[in-house]
Amino acid sequence: MNPNRVIAILVGLVLLVIVVLSSVFVVDQRKFAVVFAFGQFVRVADDAGLNFKLPAPFQNVRFFDRRIMTIDNPEAERYITAEKKNLLVDSYVKWRIVDPRKFFISFKGDERMASDRLTQLVRSALNEEFTKRTVREIISEQRDEVMQSIRKKVEVDAADIGVEIVDVRLKRIDLLAEISDSVYRRMEAERKRVANELRSTGAAESDKIRADAERQRDVILAEAYRDAQRIKGAGDARATALYSEAFGRDPQFAQFYRSLEAYRSSFKDKRDIMVIEPNNEFFKHLNKK
Fold first, then answer.
1. Separation between Cα atoms, residue 258 and residue 271, nearest integer Å
2. Degrees to nearest 5, angle at CA 278 with 275 and 283
3. 158 CB contacts (<8 Å, ≥6 apart)?
4. Same domain membership, residue 227 and residue 149
5. Are residues 127 and 212 in the same domain?
6. What count of Cα atoms within 13 Å lies in the side-chain half-sphere of residue 148?
7. Is the omega angle on the peptide bond into residue 57 within 30 degrees of 0, that is, cis?
8. Is 183 among the domain residues?
9. Domain closes at, from 125, 152, 175
10. Range of the domain at 55
11. Of 3, 141, 192, 196, which is least surrounded by CB within 10 A?
12. 98 in the same domain as 56
């Protein structure tokens, strides 16, 4: 075979391999692949695996990360509340690319530029939210509401640049040293006022419950005494009637029985002494033979 022809075939094969290799690219599942033709956006290849394009220099490919990224400022930033108090706020933002075309048009594919832009948006939203609220609302009462409001405001601008805001969090909120003491004193005074109000309310309720319990006790005792007296009276009346009926049948026995009762009452104790005449009427039943 002609040596020149062999060389030509080899050169053709090498060129073919180069063309084929420059027409094939692999998309990682963690990446977006954007195809450009002479610097102009053509399409987005977001299916993981083997993909094809025109060989270079007709088309080329750039890859963008589709995972969630974090913007975490190393230093806390200062914001002013509705009370004109300075706060040091440490926050972070979670975001990701959702529209590679808009992202490339906005930042030429530079993630650092996108991070700076999102930082400015979040800072502006934080400043707007903080100026409408007091220190107490931001720290304890409306913290979640503040984060949700910031996220919603940033999402609108982020959508225009091909970015999705996944989350916005306030990690730490600190007062400046010069105002911490005054704020703490005011919070302490507020807590004491609330505690005193609760104690007063509790004391009033206690007195009310105690007075009601005493009233119920008096009513119960009065009703019990009334019922006891009624029962006692009925019993005495019944006893009197029985005595009268029994003694009416034999008056002499009744007189004798009453005398025995009198003796029993008078000489209940051995130390009891009576000084009377022996023929006294009191001992008439003892003197009988």
1. 22
2. 95
3. 95, 118, 121, 164, 165
4. no
5. no
6. 4
7. yes
8. no
9. 175
10. 3-64
11. 3
12. no
Q: Give the number of domains in the chain.
A: 4
User: How much is the pTM?
Assistant: 0.50
CB of 173 closer than 8 Å to CB of 139? yes
Length of the chain as a residue count: 289
CB of 89 closer than 8 Å to CB of 76: yes
Would you state the structure tokens that stand for residue 74, as one six-digit string? 């190393």
Q: Is 125 exposed, middle or buried (0-12, 13-18, 19+ CB in 10 A)?
A: buried
Residue 89 makes CB contacts below 8 A (sequence gap 6+) with 76, 77, 78, 79, 126, 130, 170, 172, 173
Determine, yes or no, domain membership for 182: no
